Amino acid sequence: MASVEAVFREEHGRLLAALVRRFGDLDLAEEVTSEAIEAALAHWPVDGVPPKPGAWLMTTARRKAVDRLRRDQVLAARLAVLQVEADRAGAVPATDAGDDLPDERLQLFFTCSHPALAAEDRGALTLRCLAGLTTPEVARAFLVPPATMAKRITRAKKKIREARIPFRVPGADELPERLPGVLQVVYSIFTEGYAASSGPHLQRLDLAEEAIRLARVLRRLLPAEREVAGLLGMMLLIHARRDARTGPDGELVLLDEQDRGRWDRPMIEEGRALVPVALTGGPPGPYGVQAAIAALHDEAADLATTDWPQIVALYDVLLALTPSSVVALNRAAAVAMRDGPQAGLALLDELADEPLLRAYHPYPMARADLLHRLGRHAEAAAAYHQALDLAGTEPERTLLRRRLAAIEETGSGRA
């Protein structure tokens, strides 16, 4: 059954993309894709997984789509037009998908991430269409009720249909403008998996792994795009630490306390190999730079031997590429490791009025840590209180309560 599920996960996006391309109807393609998978669940456990599972699914789905169109008087004319177009193009007949299933997922990536769609809908549609998650599963991913998510997905599909958003890969002149949006959707999915916005768990490994799988698909489809390599490399290098980021009871373990022997070394090596790919051949992009930063962390034996000067230099490059208060916060933390807590705190204080950081708990947490290291315990306690009010997951709140209790109980900040 595990192998069957793996086939479904791998083939779902390819099948859906090919059907959308063929019939021009996302709803129809989703319905017959689901029906084909249901048919496979009924037949494969008895007959075995066929040698060409993608072709089997495609043949089944196309037959079901043709049957639906024939039964629907309104859509019957469309089927005739599609068949004429297919015959002119020399396409495979609808009753036989042949041995090879065309991989048209790249078009689906750009359709799901089209800038005409609302930002909150792009990630949901990507998970629904390319990852093959059900609507309730997507709802859990975004921590909203299934009914709310169903409305979002329906709204996005309606927008695609009414705005006639093209199902195609942008031309060479459009790609630089459109690709960042696709990468941002995948990165957003990974971010929620790496550090959940709320809930009882720090990480949502299923989301992080799904984002990595989608990035692998993009890497295969766009091998010459350096930022695709950078995004995949960055996610691999960060996700390699997943087992060390939580303790036996799910508690948060920060980087300086992690058992680096639990880091996934093969994943680190795979990610490291992508860094030079991302950084050579032209000016660096933000994902390539972030991959290089992650690689420096993963290469170090411990916090003390980390190449902090190089990390600060890379954050300087990243800040120039993507000016943001979050990047500035991370740079300040790196400066504190290179030049001492006072230097880092001065940079954090310069960010005090940044609107984004007011609701971002890592900011007061970083200030609390530096104030603690400087012996300013009352101010550190106040900052920990602020971070505790903003933290979204229970493991983060548990860590903050523990640090706060140590400061308030001893008055020295030492546990």
Automatic annotation (TrEMBL):
InterPro entries: DUF6596, RNA_pol_sigma70_r2, RNA_pol_sigma70_r4_t2, RNA_pol_sigma_r2, RNA_pol_sigma_r3/r4-like, WH-like_DNA-bd_sf. Residues 178-275 form the DUF6596 domain. Keywords: Sigma factor, Transcription, Transcription regulation. Residues 116-160 form the RNA polymerase sigma factor 70 region 4 type domain. Residues 9-73 form the RNA polymerase sigma-70 region domain. It holds the Pfam family Sigma70_r2. Belongs to the sigma-70 factor family. ECF subfamily. This is RNA polymerase sigma factor. The lineage of its organism: Bacteria, Bacillati, Actinomycetota, Actinomycetes, Pseudonocardiales.
